[in-house]
Amino acid sequence: MRQPTRRKLRPEDARRSNLALVLQGINDNPQLSRADLARATGLTKVTISDLVAELISTDLVVETGTSDVARPGKPSTLLDLNASGRDILAMDLSARDQLRGAVLSLRGEPTVTRVRPLDGAVGDEALAAARALAGELADAAGNPILGLGVGTPGTVDASGVVLSAPNLHWANLPLQQLLHDDLDLPVRVENDANVAVLAERRFAGGPDDLVRVHLSRGVGAGLLVGGRLVHGAASDAGEIGHVAIGDDSPVCGCGKVGCLETWTSVPALRARFATEPERREEFLAEAGHRLGLALAPVVGMLGLQQIVIGGPADIATTALLDAARDCIVERTRSEFRPQIDVTASSLGEDAVLLGAAALVLLSELGVA
Ligand SMILES: [Zn+2]
Predict the structure, then answer these.
(1) What is the whole-number distance in angstroms between the Cα of residue 106 and the centre of ligand 1?
(2) What is the pLDDT of residues 254-278, one digit of tens each?
(3) CB-side exposure of 64: number of CA atoms within 13 Å?
(4) Taking CA atoms, which of 51, 153, 278, 351 is between 20 and 30 Å from 199?
């Protein structure tokens, strides 16, 4: 997310920020009362009552009953997100052969899912398929729509222009603007690895400082630092696949030797499995070790305690994860440093779709 330019804080900004604070509090701890929220946020009870009234009148929050905790005075009314108060539309454009879409509740539960086969379509044809899928999702929504989030492969700038997505043959494509023009809804387009790390935080309990590596045709990563997505000066943060971490690999497609992808991408590993199936575990351990070599300096630099690995079940295996963890621990250990967790993503193939929904929650409501 680009830093906003410095300007005078207006009263409506402060109100929006307080509404986000209250929504976040209710999101994190369903079954809070107004008094609990006042304590948790440091806002006055009068302010909280006013903000909660607005959130209830706009269908974002509901009263769910009364507290059965014995306290003096009248029992307090408990609050929760109104899961069906809005629908979120989400699309995952990262698979090779299909586009996936869903309508989700405010809690991220899918109520409608749609798949459109790509059948090798690229360029304008793939764009037409994505626009059609977005329209289909908007038609399928049963509640007012909060917005559409899209996770796409490639580099994406801060205004949602896909600068380059070679697999889809897209370059300088203003996808966010086009979808906004089609649907007249808030639309956010982000790189698929970036939205996937948002999903790990929102839907899998991940921390605010987190790297999520995705092993697929290539190797990419999404980075959260202090709860913020890191994009990099050229919108290509996390593109670690062509970082050379050795000089003993075959020549990579990019022309260099030693790229992380030549050991760790799904096609590279599956090609090795096919030629020497009996060495599968050894190849996975080697891939994990090379991944650890690339990540250890990042762990040291950012002070990370957790790395999540996403990818197909035959690749993101215990053998690969253990080797990556061992390598990172070996290279970063000190008596001051807490242990690092290297875990497989629990979100499966839904990580990008859920992340696209998380992106909308974050951009429209300020809820992380
Ligand atoms: Zn390369």
Answers:
(1) 40
(2) 899 999 999 999 999 999 999 999 9
(3) 17
(4) 51
Ligand 1 centre from 254 Cα, in Å?
A: 4
Structure tokens at 359: 């992106």
Total count of residues recorded for the chain: 368
Model confidence, pTM: 0.91
- 61-66 vs 77-81, strand pairing mode: antiparallel
**Cα gap 224→115, rounded to integer Å:** 29
Pairwise CA distance, residues 309 & 318, whole Å: 11
Residues in Cβ contact with 39 at an 8 Å cutoff, skipping those fewer than 6 apart: none
H/E run at residue 19: helix 11-28
The Å distance, Cα 263 to ligand 1 centre, comes to 11
Neighbours of 203 (CB within 10 A): 18
Tell me the per-residue pLDDT of 18-33, one tens digit each, with 9 for 90 and over. 999 999 999 988 889 9
Secondary structure, 3-state, 107-118: CCCEEEEEEEEC
